[in-house]
Amino acid sequence: MKCKVCKGAAVVQVPRHNANFCPLHYKEHIHYQVERVIKSYRMFSKKDRILLGVSGGKDSMVLWNVLRELGYSVQTVHINVRQGDYFEKSEAVVRKFAEETGADLKVYRFRDIFGFEFESALKFSRKPVCSLCGTLKRHAFNRLAKGLNCDVCATAHNLDDETALLLGNVLHWQMGYLRRQSPVLEAETGMVKKVKPAVRITDREMKDYADLFSIGYVDEKCPYSRGATTHFYKDILNRLEDQYPGTKTYFYFKFIKDLKPSLKEASEDTGDVNHCVRCGCKTLQDGKCFVCALADRIKMSAAGQEAVDP
Question: How many alpha carbons lie under 13 Å from residue 153 in its C-beta half-sphere?
């Protein structure tokens, strides 16, 4: 097995590109894929300050390393959701990488940001656990990005994440979600720009990079993710990819290029967009956004008062 570039001994196969790579040229390949997305979608420049949310998993750790090596200014944030082996191990991995590389890192406990524990949020919200965690973290990253004077907020969602999300939204014709699915969500009142620079890299490619270049990460799945439908969708797409390499890339980027621009506004998105009277985030509700309303409900319950579902 020879490297596509230098013809030396290859150590990584990338079937969807019909290519094999030696360590050096595999690194160049991954860096190129990230840089290609950044430039194609005008995500940010070397002058911008980027807030990157890291979990300690392979995707966020690899993207953190790649962005640093490409010369971007990255302020990394880790939110420890709760006590427990998985969450403490994740924090330790993130802290170790920052210490070894001298990278900028800020670590927050969930309660320090929201004023309540994640278990309380689960109790008083009707959202599925992964959806709730994602909603709360997006709210936190947006607020932290503004507070830390960052120009853009980046996450490490990869090609597998995005195609699984797209498949689920198509199967259920979630038109509002389909309209919003994009590598870039531009800044607007109360909201910083949000980007996904890793959308051209798969789960396996992220793992190969981390293992090849000894980037530490937590290999276990989050305990809250058990039973998540995205795992099922990823399995389906992996089977298709095994038979027809390149399927994921075509499925996602064909949607982004040709179908997404033509989607008409979904019925659930036709309401007036408001901004939270407390935090300024966008919301379809009057008054407070979901997160601020949830915080009030938890606070009122603790005080023994009756509260309305957010």
Answer: 23
- The answer to whether the CB of 229 falls within 8 A of the CB of 131 is no
| SS3 state of residue 143 | helix
Domain topology for 32-270: Rossmann fold (3.40.50)
> Which residue intervals of the chain are DSSP H helices?
23-40, 58-69, 85-101, 110-114, 118-124, 129-147, 159-171, 175-180, 203-212, 229-243, 247-254, 290-302
| Radius of gyration of the CA atoms of the chain, in A | 20
Cα distances from 39 to residues 42, 124, 144, 195, in angstroms, run 5, 42, 25, 12
What pTM did the predictor assign?
0.90
Query: Sign of dihedral through CA atoms 292, 293, 296, 298?
Result: negative
For residue 167 the two structure tokens come to 């498949």
pLDDT, tens only, 255-295: 999 999 888 654 444 445 677 888 878 776 778 888 888 98
The rounded distance, in Å, linking the Cα atoms of 119 and 107 is 20
State the DSSP H helix or E strand holding residue 104, giving kind and residue range, or none if neither: strand 104-109
The answer to whether 87 and 80 have CB atoms below 8 angstroms apart is yes
Q: Which positions ≥6 away from 32 have C-beta within 8 Å?
A: none
Burial of 86 (0-12, 13-18, 19+ CB in 10 A): middle
Looking at residue 219, the DSSP 8-state letter turns out to be -
Confirm if 46 and 38 have CB atoms less than 8 A apart.
no
List the domain boundaries for the chain.
32-270, 273-310
Beta bridge partners of 152: 50, 193
Question: Cα–Cα distance between 279 and 48 in angstroms, integer?
Answer: 24
- Residue pLDDT, tens place only, 202-251: 999 999 999 999 999 999 888 877 777 889 999 999 999 999 999 999 99
